[in-house]
């Protein structure tokens, strides 16, 4: 059963652990002169939908930076929820349960937003929140279309020879192939009950909020970081 939006607070949860490996201290590293986390907090504070912006971190330096930027860091995440293998779901459940325990009140809608989401705009979060509120779904999350038709994908066999994964589409015109999308990894809206019940985001009743491809960029490596800064510079008036 899909749970509707409650009257509880609408909260943004930003996961920002201190131990990133591929880009050390990534979440507080200056991105075009401003710490990555601060850019995300500034974005969230510009929207019209959030009652609270909460940073979930295991790191006191990150917590201090978050509060100085205008967000809340009302708890430190336990170490077992801050390693390389911890997924987003345990982190957001911990945040919901801790915030509700602290306040004594139940939350409403909760959106997890990653510090690396430097290309999302306030309207993305506002429009996707309206999708969540107006339709009977559990989740709404950011997505983008693939650059090329996935039906034309190739695989490499064990002998090194390539072959089509779907040879039945060899002669199908690209405009006749169904559009396919991928998770953009920017933000995920969900009702409080949907998060706590463990409903799967990608297999439950979910809607996509489609972002243009040019506003989707992972920042996992130094190459990603450099590319993201170049794109951001071209798009920005800063």
Overview of the molecule:
The protein has 238 residues and is an alpha/beta fold. The protein has a single domain (11-143, 182-235), classed as Alpha-Beta Complex (Spore Coat Polysaccharide Biosynthesis Protein SpsA, Chain A), CATH 3.90.550. The protein has six helices and ten strands, in the order βββαβααβαββββαβα. The protein has helices at 36-46, 60-68, 88-103, 122-134, 192-196, 222-235; strands at residues 11-15, 30-31, 34-35, 52-56, 109-113, 139-145, 154-156, 162-164, 181-191, 206-210. The strands form three sheets. Strands 4-1-5-9-6-10 form a six-stranded mixed sheet, sandwiched between helices. It has a two-stranded antiparallel sheet with strand order 2-3. It is globular, with a radius of gyration of 19 Å. The termini are far apart.
Question: What is the topology?
Answer:
Blueprint: E1 11-15, E2 30-31, E3 34-35, H1 36-46, E4 52-56, H2 60-68, H3 88-103, E5 109-113, H4 122-134, E6 139-145, E7 154-156, E8 162-164, E9 181-191, H5 192-196, E10 206-210, H6 222-235
Parallel strand pairs: 1-4, 1-5, 6-10
Antiparallel strand pairs: 2-3, 5-9, 6-9, 7-8
């Amino acid at each position: 059963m899909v749970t509707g939006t409650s009257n509880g607070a609408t909260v943004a949860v930003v996961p920002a652990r201190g131990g990133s490996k591929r880009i050390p201290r990534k979440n507080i590293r200056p991105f075009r002169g401003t710490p990555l986390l601060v850019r995300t907090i500034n974005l969230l504070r510009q929207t019209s939908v959030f009652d609270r912006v909460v940073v979930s971190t295991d790191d006191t330096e990150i917590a201090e930076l978050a509060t100085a930027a205008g967000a809340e860091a009302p708890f430190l995440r336990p170490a077992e929820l801050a390693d390389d293998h911890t997924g987003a779901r345990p982190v957001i459940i911990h945040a919901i349960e801790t915030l509700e325990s602290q306040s004594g009140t139940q939350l409403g809608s909760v959106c997890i937003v990653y510090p690396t989401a430097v290309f999302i705009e306030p309207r993305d979060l506002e429009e996707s929140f309206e999708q969540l509120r107006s339709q009977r779904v559990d989740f709404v999350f950011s997505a983008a279309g693939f650059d090329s038709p996935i039906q034309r994908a190739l695989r490499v066999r064990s002998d090194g020879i390539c072959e089509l994964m779907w040879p039945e589409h060899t002669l199908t015109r690209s405009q006749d192939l169904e559009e396919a999308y991928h998770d953009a990894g920017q933000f995920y809206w969900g009702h409080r009950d949907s998060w706590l019940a463990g409903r799967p985001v990608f297999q439950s009743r979910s809607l996509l909020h489609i972002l243009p491809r040019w506003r989707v960029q992972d920042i996992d490596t130094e190459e990603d970081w450099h590319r993201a800064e170049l794109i951001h510079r071209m798009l920005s008036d800063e």
